[in-house]
Amino acid sequence: MTNRSQSLFERAKRSIPGGVNSPVRAFRSVGGDPLFLTRGEGAHVWDVDGNMYIDYVGSWGPLILGHSHPKVVEAIEKQARIATSFGAPTELEIEMAELVRELMPSIEMLRLVSSGTEATMSAVRLARGFTGREKIVKFEGCYHGHADSFLIKAGSGALTLGSPDSPGVTRGTAQDTLNGRYNDLASVEMLVALNPAAIAAIIVEPIAGNMGVVPASEHFLKGLRALCDRENIVLIFDEVMTGFRVALGGAQSIYGIRPDLTTLGKIIGGGLPVGAFGGRRDIMQMLSPSGPVYQAGTLSGNPLAMAAGLATLRILQQENPYPELERKSAMLSSGFAANLQAAGINATQTRVGSMSCLFFTGGPVMNFDQAFKSDTAAYGRYFRAMLGRGIYLAPSQFEAMFISAAHSDADLERTIEANRSAIAEIMDSL
Ligand code: KE4
To answer: Which of 189, 282, 396, 430 has the smallest C-beta neighbourhood within 10 Å, fewest atoms?
Structure first.
């Protein structure tokens, strides 16, 4: 029974476009109306009708410790009583910058902002200012937030100039964004050959989490690193999702690759609005006020968000939940694999640490074209069947499933059983 969610959704749509403040929340790609949530505790959330769910969205990644971790709540409460915001430097921002530098040594200097989009948008502007070049390369299926430069789909053949993916993005902007194919180094070499000395940056999710979860091959990332060294292109790792998620040092620590710039978000805010970008000192020094590249933000480094983010990162550093996250994530994936095999379902699972995806396609899934072959209608039926069994998954085939340190083995066993019976329920339509 979700009557109250339905009435709130009708009311929301009168004041908020689509009734939501971010499109994916609207359940458009899975069918049905969104649930309005009211409480989160550990691995569980409750909707306004009192239904409880095991949560695998986790605010899209930030809540690696689960909802309302006592130490994070305490840090926020304590800071709120002192001050919420000054718009002036605070020691908390230095502590955050120093801790991120300690955990991600490729980051020699850091600038804090208030969202992942601000981080990636600013990192691209900085790379353009540093190199004096105008074009950037991104990859089909990767998402870097909603700044104009990123809302560009590949032109035909993916090697021609981009075209706007959204009204409001100008052709002038689109022409400076080139799209490569993920995990296809040759596609990038071609773009570089077609645009000599014109590319400022290559921005990539080292483990893609926005076309579903698609890990980059080591060959691809090492190839990008070598190509950027050869062509004096700034290599930007967008670790907004993977930073402190897949490892304390992020994806760059797993691959052993040093990007020139890294963008961060989600986990470093512990559930409050934060983004950050950082990297080589010679590049970062170009940022205003130490350099000419302008970038600013009213709430950048906000004390409340710093308190929540520092509490989260310190718990990750001191308690090291990663081995347990790996054990739990492996348990869930193998439980799903057994169910899929028993049912003879044509599906592919991908996973890196505690971020994973169940694609309704035979696979392999190494790039967007292959991910896009997924049966999204089947995913919608699966999503709704799992929701009906108290399991709250990402309302889109092209997102990630997140396990937190708060998920218990009992939660996982319940999820595996729900997966088994949900697949049985939708079997005939697969
Ligand atoms: P935000 O501006 O939403 O904080 O971050 C943008 C962003 C940048 N880079 C990566 C790799 C990201 O995953 C994101 C945001 N991720 C989506 C979920 N896939 C946010 C959810 C939403 O848009 O509501």
So the answer is: 282
